[in-house]
Amino acid sequence: MARKSNAETAANPGRLKQIALTYKMTRKADPKVGLIVAGVGIVTFGVFLAIGFLTGLALYLGILGFLVAFLAMAIVFGRRAERAAFGQMEGQPGAAAAVLDNVGRGWTTTPAVAMTRQQDIVHRAVGKAGVVLIAEGNPNRVKPLLANEKKKLARIMPDVPVHDFIVGTGEGEVPLKKVRTTLLKLPRVLAGPQITQVNDKLRAMGDLMSNMPLPKGPMPKGMKMPRGGKMR
After folding, report:
1. In this structure, are residues 27 and 35 in contact, taking their beta carbons and an 8 Å threshold?
2. Rounded distance between C-alpha atoms, residue 163 and residue 15, angstroms
């Protein structure tokens, strides 16, 4: 019990530090986040407290209002922090890969299965919806990359559905913040064993970046392929 208590005590400063860091990063992109979150908490607590005085249950509704206000503040802050994070990543090479890392269970993602010298990139995700190719970069350059990847997939697994889309803000493109929801809305057609078979075939096929370690998150703008690396 003592060890558990010590571990929890040591973890709390880390959580608080992470929250503080998240707040600082969010405030840079959203200067009013503090006022908005505080306003949500005050209004929520005030409404519950007012109802409590009117009904003679000020103490009980005051406690309930405090808990609900804290929850509402956490939800609002989380959404604005997420929006700020997407705003900072928007347009950076490799940003879609960072989003794919957090799609959730049941999805296997492989970043940069194809790339151009201008850092137009195609990522791949495999799940119950089949294979999904996610491209980011200049649409005129990534479309041939997508077509090439789809041809390869059609040769080795013709019966597996292949979806593709381009991340961006243009017509027909998917905004970065909607990448995750777009994947999760796709129809589920593969079972667990089928997903395993697809991943095994793709590993056997090999990828452009299989021998090159990639950092998590957006790819640095100055990053270049090593000599001998095959460009597409």
Report:
1. no
2. 38
> Which tokens belong to 222?
């100055």
pTM beyond 0.70: the answer is no
Partner residues linked to 135 by β-bridges: 122, 166
Which sign, positive or negative, has the C-alpha torsion 89, 144, 158, 230? negative
Q: What is the mean pLDDT of the chain?
A: 79
Buried b (16+ CB within 10 A) or exposed e, 128-163: bbbbbbbbbbebeebeebbeebeeebeeebeebebb
Answer yes or no: is pLDDT of 47 > 90.
Answer: yes
* Maximal C-alpha separation, the chain: 77
Task: Give the pairing type, strands 121-127 and 162-167.
Answer: unpaired
143 within 8 A of 136, measured Cβ to Cβ: no
The H-or-E segment that residue 229 falls in is none
Per-residue pLDDT of 63-84, as tens digits, reads 999 999 999 999 998 888 777 7
Which residues neighbour 21 within 8 Å (Cβ) at sequence distance 6 or greater? none
